Structure prediction request, 131 residues.
Amino acid sequence: MQEIGVLVNVPEEDYVQRLSAANSDKEHVAIVVSYGGRGQTTKEVVKILRDNEVDIVLITSMQENPLIKYAKHKLYLASAENHYNKVSSFSTRLSLLSVFDLLYSIYFNHDYEKNLQYKISNYQKMNKELI
Prediction:
């Protein structure tokens, strides 16, 4: 997203997640990934986002998730992976990557020519030889 001039904030630590949510407003969009809505921090962050009138896109599994009621948009991933007997989260990780790639392509294509020119222009700036 940064290649087309869009800042994306991915806070990892609890405090920074809450701070980012508190700093957000109705001009922002939040993409929340939560398969079951069990994390306490995520619940609190989503409530702050709702109170600040932020549109929430929830990426979740088909299982019951209490966060669904806060999301304006819901994207569902398959929930057939056995969390106890699995070697790793292969299908979940690949599914999530596909969803993020799809969201990026939709956003990019919304104003394709502008985004393409922005990207090309900045690549050209970055690749100029230093004198």
